[in-house]
Amino acid sequence: xxxxxxxxxxxxxxxxxxxxxxxxxxxxxxxxxxxxxxxxxxxxxxxxxxxxxxxxxxxxxxxxxxxxxxxxxxxxxxxxxxxxxxxxxxxxxxxxxxxxxxxxxxxxxxxxxxxxxxxxxxxxxxxxxxxxxxxxxxxxxxxxxxxxxxxxxxxxxxxxxxxxxxxxxxxxxxxxxxxxxxxxxxxxxxxxxxxxxxxxxxxxxxxxxxxxxxxxxxxxxxxxxxxx
Length: 228
Known about the structure:
globular
């Protein structure tokens, strides 16, 4: 039993080293795809995704997992050059609560528009798990990774930086869990394990048009009309 436990630890450590080392090898390529999706969680992600939209790497952009208080106007202030694109070619997903939710909501968006290929934008350390979840949710869609590199996370020398190690260890654990979950569950939308792991459903039960600043504006307007 002791040597079995030691062997398990060695396998996990070897897997982690392989996982962390591969991150530095992932290069960002941006071929033309039907559309682009960016998973929120890092300030640079959205800016890079909008840049790819401007470069015509996709006809439309989905920003998945947007904070309920953030609207197009706030995004336009952060990305002044993107105001026109935000008005015409960008969709905001407020329902996704985690990476599984991002995959579920993106699948709905892909089916709605009939897209066959996606350029997926997220941080480099987050990309393996995100690709796993997206490929599991959309096996018939070609998904091209576009990993975003930031100065705050140096994956090229991850063993030297305690901050990077603290970030990568839980990410590796989540990646392992996602791998195991994908083997026993066919559809992430009916995943019971995702609810147990995350403590809640991966997507909000509210319809998309009832979340976010635009809904708040409509609610206030209806309240004023009723009071008048």
